[in-house]
Write a structure and sequence with these properties.
Shape: elongated
Strand content: under 5%
Number of strands: 2
CATH class of the domain at 46-132: Mainly Alpha
Subcellular location: Periplasm
Number of helices: 3
Protein name: Periplasmic nitrate reductase, electron transfer subunit
Family: Belongs to the NapB family.
Pfam families: NapB (PF03892)
Strand order of the largest sheet: 1-2
Radius of gyration: 27 Å
CATH topology of the domain at 46-132: Flavocytochrome C3, Chain A, domain 2
Order of helices and strands: HEHHE
Main location: periplasm
CATH superfamily of the domain at 46-132: Flavocytochrome C3, Chain A
């Protein structure tokens, strides 16, 4: 018990002295060079490319040629289906989902997207002209 009191008696004044010293020397500077409340402009690392990219291997899921930043995809809603579901794709001039998306686990045809295919961004990602994060020697198949 006496050790805890002794440690508290040493640590508390040291901590207060450190804070007082930091404030007296002009405050604590941030690593990003701006105040927390100030917006900081960040340069674009990539840009969305709306020209369709070629697939690199057989059965590769198509890449998404548009931004999906504001798309809601959760248990109750899937914004992708507002254009790509077979019931509306023709009038929206959007590619229709593959019929495999309408098969249940037993292979039975359904009128709605199967739960196993509901979360589109598990397989389909937005295409972007972005720099490689690591060196890569991948070559597409013929």
């Amino acid at each position: 018990m006496k050790k805890n009191i002794l440690i508290s008696a040493i640590v508390a004044p040291t901590l207060l002295a450190t804070v007082a010293f930091a404030q007296s020397t002009g405050g604590i500077s941030t690593l990003r060079g701006a105040d927390v409340a100030d917006p900081v402009a960040v340069e674009d690392v990539f840009h969305q490319d709306e020209t369709r990219f070629a697939r690199n291997y057989r059965q590769q899921p198509p890449l998404v040629p548009h931004s999906i930043d504001q798309y809601q995809i959760d248990l109750k809603a899937n914004r992708c289906l507002s254009c790509h579901d077979w019931t509306v794709a023709g009038e929206r001039k959007a590619p229709t989902l593959s019929m495999t998306h309408y098969l249940d686990r037993e292979g039975n045809q359904m009128d709605t997207v199967a739960g196993t295919r509901w979360f589109c961004n598990q397989c389909h990602v937005p295409q972007a002209d972005a720099p490689e994060l690591v060196d890569n020697t991948f070559e597409p198949s013929n």
